[in-house]
Specification:
By secondary structure, this protein is mainly alpha-helical. Helix content is 89%, strand content 0%. α1 packs antiparallel against α2, α2 packs antiparallel against α3 and α3 runs antiparallel to α4.
Length: 138
């Protein structure tokens, strides 16, 4: 009867089980073949350097995104929830600045967190906009 709520949870569960199993196998392989583990680490270091390059690029993208959001905040109707757009733009600008100025070693760690924060602030702004449009139309 209640199949709609069952799908995503069982998918998540099997995804987590798969991930856990994969990590366990990788752990066993790392212990069994240390040279393989060092090769993987080499690739991860290379990957983090690429991520650092991407982070500075992403920093610039975030600054452009921030400029667009801030411009939008001042060009929407006055009764529009422009405060959310303004906050989102400021948050995005700060995140872009952090990415551009953070030391290379840290960017990998920041990247995931900052993208998460950016998505959250954008989500809040979109929700506020959607609710405003719904209220204005009805």
């Amino acid at each position: 009867m209640d199949h709609a709520h069952h799908g995503p949870i069982s998918q998540l569960k099997s995804g987590l089980l798969w991930l856990g199993g994969t990590l366990a196998i990788l752990g066993i392989l790392a212990i069994a073949a240390p040279w393989a583990a060092s090769t993987v680490v080499d690739y991860m270091v290379g990957g983090s350097l690429i991520a650092a390059g991407m982070a500075t690029f992403l920093g610039l993208v975030l600054l452009f995104e921030a400029a667009a959001k801030l411009t939008a905040a001042f060009s929407v109707p006055r009764n529009f929830p422009w405060g959310w757009l303004l906050a989102d733009g400021l948050i995005t600008a700060v995140l872009g600045g952090i990415l551009l100025t953070s030391p290379t070693g840290q960017t990998g760690v920041y990247l995931g967190v900052l993208i998460g924060i950016n998505l959250l602030s954008s989500g809040a702004a979109f929700l506020a906009s959607g609710l405003w449009i719904k209220r204005e139309i009805s």
